Amino acid sequence: METKPITSHNLLVYLHSELVQLPKSFRDHVCRECGWSNATFYRKAKGTYPLTNAERDKIISVGDKLLKNISNVNNRFKTR
Fold it and tell me: Please, which residues have CB within 8 angstroms of residue 55's CB and are 6 or more apart in sequence?
């Protein structure tokens, strides 16, 4: 299988699509890790219900993981 060379257009499209998906990925991962429904996620996001320390830790962990994935994508393109 032949691979296409990375062009600035491909990089832009790829990185843009990764960043556009970030909010949905964040929500889905937080819901899975905390055992929440989407409705609970949005109620918690409004500040209607307080977060426990365990939920805070999970949310920070999910955010770190997703940001590291974006950073890895950037680093992969930097080395080419």
Answer: 34, 44
Lowest mean pLDDT among 3-12, 13-22, 24-33, 71-80: 3-12
- Asked if residues 54 and 61 have their Cβ atoms less than 8 Å apart, the reply is no
d(CA 10, CA 14): 6
Q: How far apart are CA 9 and CA 73, in angstroms?
A: 15
First to last CA, the chain: 19
Give 26-62 pLDDT, tens digit per residue: 999 999 999 999 999 999 999 989 999 999 999 999 9
Which pTM does this prediction carry? 0.81
* Residue 72, token pair as written in the block: 């890895």
The backbone region for 47, taken as left when phi is positive above 0, alpha when psi lies in -120 to 50, beta otherwise, is left
